[in-house]
TrEMBL record:
This is NADH-quinone oxidoreductase subunit C. Pfam families: Complex1_30kDa. Belongs to the complex I 30 kDa subunit family. InterPro entries: NADH_quin_OxRdtase_su_C/D-like (IPR037232), NADH_UbQ_OxRdtase_30kDa_su (IPR001268). Residues 29-145 form the NADH:ubiquinone oxidoreductase 30kDa subunit domain.
């Protein structure tokens, strides 16, 4: 299915969805954090879309906002999209978990929590995955300072 056809179907799944194809082969959809879970659920279950595979889930720090980028594919129809969600709350960033929709998201969300500090509502086992439990801070945030390894001149 072409991106224009995908956009026409997806546009009816939520309110105020933003679409772009700039610099990508994929149709990119930006969804509000309040709609994330509902839209993702519809992306998977809609019989014309069937995005049944979350092949890449990445945390992002855009400076003012933190967020997540989801690369989704339909293994049946062979089409793919990118879904972006952002939060401006850097002190207590929270998004809804999608691991009940795509099981692979469970570990991706733990990794994002570990490195960016984004908490995922309704995640079954949210904890640090790579860093020690006593680690302070989130090393992939742009404002992270690694004081233990600073070079002093």
């Amino acid at each position: 299915m072409k991106n224009e056809e995908l956009q026409n179907i997806i546009n009816g799944l939520g309110e105020n969805l933003e679409f772009s194809e700039e610099g990508s082969e994929y149709l990119m959809i930006t969804v509000s954090k309040e709609q994330l879970h509902a839209v993702c659920s519809k992306l998977k279950t809609d019989p014309d879309l069937k995005f049944d595979y979350a092949f890449c889930i990445t945390g992002m720090d855009w400076g003012e906002e933190l967020g997540v980028i989801y690369h989704l594919e339909s293994t049946e129809f062979k089409h793919a999209i990118v879904v972006k969600v952002k939060t401006e709350d850097r002190e207590n960033p929270t998004l809804d978990s999608v691991c009940d929709i795509w099981r692979t998201a469970e570990f991706h969300e733990m990794e994002i929590f570990d490195f960016f500090g984004i908490k995922f509502n309704n995640h079954p086992n949210l904890k640090r995955l790579f860093l020690t439990p006593d680690w302070v801070g989130y090393p992939l945030r742009k404002d992270y300072v690694d004081e233990a390894n600073m070079i002093v001149k």
